[in-house]
Predict the 3D structure of the following.
Amino acid sequence: MNIVRFAGLNTIALFSLIACASQPPPAVAPTSAPTLIRAQPGDTVYLIEHYVRPEGREQFEQFVDQVLWPALQQTAGANAVRGRILRQTRLLRPLAPNTDDSYTYTFVLDPAVPGESYNVLDILREAYSEEEALQHYGRFTESWAHDFTSRIFVQTGEPFVR
């Protein structure tokens, strides 16, 4: 398993959404049940872990639910790749705090879309004015306890055997 720690605004922006979904984003008037897309053998799956301050949990969750998912939904109409990202990303919400009292929210990109940027700030800029995008992004990063981590996996074709 590869664990990579990132620092710096550009790197954070680039990988923020390689993270950014437990409950799927609100549906846009679905006509039938959505097709679940999961990694096939050989596909890459990312786990992006955001460590959120205890007092920042509501702010983080509101950002995801009221800003990020709607931005992805809005851009998905004009960009088919954004639609794939929306369908193939989910967020796992923590049940308990970590030993440092932060909470780990994990974005699962299952599978990750090869060659596509998951840059949160870029997604926000596609859906909002520059000023709004920067304000939203600032509220997002203010909720963090410390830098996020990214874990990269490859889906196997083998069943789990002990």
